[in-house]
Design a protein that fits this description.
Layout lengths: L1 H13 L2 E12 L12 E12 L3 E5 L6 H8 L7 E6 L2 E2 L7 E4 L11 H6 L9 H14 L15 H13 L5 E5 L7 H16 L7 E5 L3 H7 L2 E6 L4 E7 L11 H15 L5 H4 L32 H13 L3 E3 H7 L4 H13 L3 E4 L2 E4 L1 H8 L2 H15 L1 H12 L4 E3 H9 L4 H17 L3 E4 L4 E4 L9
Parallel strand pairs: 3-8, 3-9, 6-7, 7-8
Antiparallel strand pairs: 1-2, 1-4, 4-5, 9-10, 11-13, 12-13, 14-16, 15-16
The structure holds adenosine-5'-triphosphate and magnesium ion (MG).
The site of adenosine-5'-triphosphate (ATP) has 13 residues, from α2 and α17.
Length: about 475
């Protein structure tokens, strides 16, 4: 009976909601480069999630899906355009003092010692100097930097500098610890070491932190560390699915449940336009707490074409590799063969499927008939097929060629296209989209682009758009 009461109590404690985002939307007004004709761009669309005491939440998602923006919103560093963030049920305005952030690379002040850098974490709080030093020394000790209090950042390795970052975050004894790709700038062994130590501190309650949220691009990190995993989709950023993490004892690459979960997340991330429900095996356990946040009911198709920023040579390489494996290959295996993380592989798959060369199906990349022909073609033939596929499938390239065909002298300034792109993307992304279109269009020999003058010129005014 006593035991049962205790369990009930601890369950109740587990579900105490520390932080909650309710229907949060974030748009940015473009401020960079030319200001005219800019439109606010939605970066996060209607995101709701809860963070409960006792949990370790991992957030995955392709580059640009708004992971960092979501963390900053939850931390109160920026305010939502719509919706609310609540800390323990109370709407949060401004930076949350009960929360600390660790970034990918930590900005340490080079002229301050380790101790002084850590003390900075307490600057905002009115704590007497002696107390500040005492707590900073304790944090330095906890994070394994004992003996380096008086060292300067330049004397430290990358891993040790990141430890200072952790100490600076932990010195405030935050209830919530947020980490934005905290290990991705470190070499493999240093990262593994720091990851292990951090997990030990957390699991053994050596730090008072009550919940951890980690943004990562590494699926295995998420599966190894998290109790709950959220996968964001892009354009605009939204929650695609929320999955239960594995029980502690199954977080081991030797276990089937582990490889299954890694594989499932891989499939979800490599098929951004597929309904997640279709990818889930029937027995997949969505989280208990997952009931707090529903799965996105349907995938949101971007309302405007989004070109992935990849070199066509890399797409060609991918298609040839799949072709050499008989026209079909497991995506996870492909990532391994190419030594690419999923967020590096994803844009290549996206490009191959936009161009009609391949499609992701049930965790495999499958070449289309034209994809197979392309892989077998010689260089001349390859260019011809690429040109055709690009014109038929890439709206942006078609628009450029159409405009050039109609323009006097077949010359059009870049402003013409960038103004249009600004309606769908922020300033930086609009230019990136144009740059990618230029690269693809040049590869396809559809047009030339003069960088100094910022103009497009038609290579071959007689070009036929014959599908
Ligand atoms: N202050 C800002 N002003 C305008 N646009 C912004 C701002 N901050 C972020 N964005 C845009 O919001 C989108 C999401 O950015 P964010 O950095 O949150 O993505 P992310 O998922 O963290 O990406 P990555 O994996 O590359 O770190 C991007 O298109 C980015 O350009
Ligand atoms: Mg980020």
């Amino acid at each position: 009976m006593a035991q049962r009461q205790k369990t009930a109590q601890s369950q109740k404690k587990e579900l105490e909601i520390l932080l909650e985002a309710r229907n949060v939307t974030k748009s940015f007004e473009s401020t960079e480069r030319q200001q005219r004709n800019t439109h606010p761009v939605t970066v996060l669309d209607d995101v709701s999630l809860k963070i409960a005491a006792g949990e370790f939440l991992a957030i995955l998602g392709p580059s640009g899906s708004g992971k960092s923006t979501l963390l900053r919103l939850l931390a109160g560093l920026i305010q939502p355009t719509e919706g609310q963030v609540l800390f323990k049920g109370v709407p949060q305005y401004g930076t949350n003092p009960h929360l600390a952030l660790v970034f990918q690379s930590f900005a340490l002040f080079p002229w301050l010692t380790v101790l002084q850098n850590v003390e900075l974490g307490l600057e905002a709080q009115e704590i007497p100097k002696t107390q500040r030093i005492k707590r900073s020394l304790a944090a330095i000790d906890t994070i394994g930097l004992d003996g380096f209090e008086d060292a300067y950042p330049k004397e430290l390795s990358g891993g040790m500098r990141q430890r200072v970052g952790f100490a600076r975050a932990l010195v405030v004894e935050p209830e919530l610890l947020f980490m934005d790709e905290p290990f991705s700038a470190l070499d493999v062994l240093t990262a593994a070491n720091l990851r292990k130590e951090l997990l030990a501190l957390w699991r053994e309650s050596k730090i008072p932190t009550r919940a951890i949220v980690m943004v990562t691009h590494n699926i295995e990190d998420a599966v190894n560390m998290a109790d709950r995993i959220i996968v964001l989709g892009a354009n605009p950023g939204h929650i695609r699915v929320e999955l239960a993490g594995l029980p502690q004892e199954l977080r081991n690459p030797q276990r089937e449940a582990y490889t299954q979960l890694v594989d499932l997340i891989y499939r979800v991330m490599t098929t951004p336009h597929q309904k997640v429900a279709k990818l889930l095996p029937a027995h997949t356990a969505l989280t208990e707490t997952g009931k707090l946040t529903p799965i996105a009911p349907s995938p949101k198709l971007p309302d405007h074409e989004v070109l992935p920023h990849v070199e066509i040579g890399d797409v060609t390489g991918l298609i040839e590799l799949v072709h050499s494996h008989g026209g079909r290959e497991d995506l996870y295996q492909l990532g391994r063969d190419l030594q690419l993380e999923v967020d590096e592989l994803l844009p290549l798959i996206e490009a191959a499927s936009i161009l009609g060369f391949a499609s992701a199906q049930e965790g495999d990349l499958v070449l289309t008939p034209i994809g197979n022909t392309f892989a077998e073609a010689d260089v001349q033939e390859e260019k011809k097929i690429f040109k055709q596929q690009a014109l038929v499938n890439v709206a942006m390239l078609r628009q450029i060629v159409d405009a050039l065909q109609d323009a006097p002298g077949h010359v059009v300034p870049e402003e013409y296209f960038i103004d249009n792109l600004r309606q769908h993307f922020n300033e930086n992304e609009a230019w990136s989209q144009l740059e990618t279109a230029i690269n693809w269009g040049r590869y396809a020999e559809l047009f030339s682009y003069q960088e100094e003058r910022g103009v497009f010129r038609l290579e071959d005014p007689e070009i036929a758009i014959n599908e």
